[in-house]
Design goal:
EDRF1_TPR; mainly alpha; 0% strand; Erythroid differentiation-related factor 1
C-alpha cells in the first residue's frame, strides 16, 4: 500500500535500491562473506525505515495517527536488522558491525514505540492494546541498547535508555490517572510507574548534558506522589507521601548544579566571530525551558511545604485535644 503523498519517481528509486541490495546480499552470501552481507542487510533495513517515514500521513498534525503502512515498513526494517545479526552470528565476528546493527535495531523499535505513543491509532485499536504494543517495543529497544559497554556511543545509549524509562513511567502514570475500578491493575501501574521513574533518574544522573530531562522526571515523580496522596485518607499516610515527595525535591540538587555550571560556562565563554562559529561548541541550554521548569519547581515546593504544615498542625491539634480529654 502506497500513500498518495509518495511520488511515482520515489517509489521507483526504492525498487531500484532494494533490487541492488538484494543482489549484493545474495552475492556476498554465495562467497560466505557474512560481514558485508550483514552491512547490506542493515542498509536494506534503513531503506525500509525511509519507506516508513514516507508513509507518515501528511495533513493535519492534530489528526495524525500512526498508520498501518508505517507499522508494516518498520517491522520489515526490524526483520532485516535481525537477519543482519543472524548473518554475523556472534559479536566476535565483527564487533563494530554488530554494535552498529544493534543500535539501528534499537532505534527502529524506539521510533515505532514513540510514534505509537505520540500518535496513537485510536481509530483502529483500543487504548490498552496500544499501551501493550508501546511497552513491548520499548522493552525490545532497551534489549538492544548497550548502556554498560564503554564506548563513544555509551552516552547515547544511556540517554536513550533513560528516555525509554521516562516514557514508560509517564505512560503508566497516565494509565493510573485514567484507570477506574480494577484495583489489581491500578496497583500494577503504580508499581511500574515508580520503577521506571527510578530507573530514568539513575540513568539521567550519569549524563552531564541532560539536566533539564533529569529535572523534568523528578517533577513528574512529585506529581505522581501528589496524585497518590489524593487517594489516601489518613494524615499519617499523607505525611509519609509528602515526605517522600520533598525528598525527591531535595535530590534535584544535581540537576540544578549542572544547569548552573552550564550557564556560568556560557556566560564566561568569550564571544566568537559570528561568521566563524566554534566547531566544538556544545549546544546551549534552552533558557525558556529552564525558566519554565524552575517555575514549576517553585510552585510544587511551595505546595508541598504548605500541605505539610497543614497536616502537621492538624495532627498536633488532634494530639493536644486527645491529651485534654484524657486529663478530664
Amino acid at each position: 500500500v502506497v500513500s498518495k503523498s509518495v511520488s511515482t519517481a520515489e517509489q521507483q528509486l526504492w525498487k531500484k535500491s532494494f533490487s541492488c541490495f538484494e543482489k549484493g546480499i545474495h552475492n556476498f552470501e554465495s562467497i560466505d562473506d557474512a560481514t558485508n552481507a550483514a552491512l547490506l542487510l542493515c542498509n536494506t533495513g534503513r531503506l525500509m525505515r525511509i519507506c516508513a517515514q514516507a508513509h507518515c500521513g501528511a495533513g493535519d498534525e492534530f489528526k495524525r495517527e500512526f498508520s498501518p503502512e508505517e507499522g508494516l515498513y518498520y517491522n520489515k526494517a526490524v526483520d532485516y536488522y535481525l537477519k543482519a545479526l543472524r548473518s554475523l552470528g556472534t559479536r566476535d565476528i565483527h564487533p563494530a558491525v554488530w554494535d552498529s546493527v544493534n543500535w539501528e535495531l534499537s532505534t527502529t523499535y524506539f521510533t515505532m514505540a514513540t510514534l505509537q505513543q505520540d500518535y496513537a491509532p485510536l481509530s483502529r485499536k483500543a487504548q490498552e492494546q496500544i499501551e501493550k504494543e508501546v511497552s513491548e517495543a520499548m522493552m525490545k529497544s532497551l534489549k538492544h541498547c548497550d548502556v554498560d559497554s564503554v564506548s563513544a556511543r555509551q552516552p547515547l545509549c544511556q540517554y536513550r535508555a533513560a528516555t525509554i524509562h521516562h516514557r514508560l513511567a509517564s505512560m503508566y502514570h497516565s494509565c493510573l490517572r485514567n484507570q477506574v475500578g480494577d484495583e489489581h491493575l491500578r496497583k500494577q501501574h503504580r508499581v511500574l510507574a515508580d520503577l521506571h521513574y527510578s530507573k530514568a533518574v539513575k540513568l539521567f544522573q550519569l549524563l552531564r548534558d541532560a539536566p533539564c530531562e533529569l529535572l523534568r522526571v523528578q517533577l513528574e515523580r512529585v506529581a505522581f506522589a501528589e496524585f497518590q496522596m489524593t487517594s489516601q485518607n489518613s494524615n499519617v499516610g499523607k505525611l509519609k507521601t509528602l515526605s517522600g515527595a520533598l525528598d525527591i525535591m531535595v535530590r534535584t540538587k544535581h540537576a540544578f548544579q549542572l544547569i548552573r555550571k552550564e550557564l556560568v560556562e556560557e556566560f564566561d565563554q568569550p564571544k566568537s566571530d559570528e561568521s566563524t562559529p566554534a566547531a566544538d561548541s556544545s549546544p546551549s541550554l534552552n533558557r525558556e525551558e529552564v525558566v519554565k521548569l524552575l517555575s514549576i519547581f517553585e510552585s510544587r515546593l511551595s505546595f508541598l511545604l504548605l500541605q505539610s504544615i497543614k497536616l502537621l498542625s492538624s495532627t498536633k491539634k488532634k494530639t493536644s485535644s486527645n491529651t485534654e480529654d484524657d486529663a478530664v
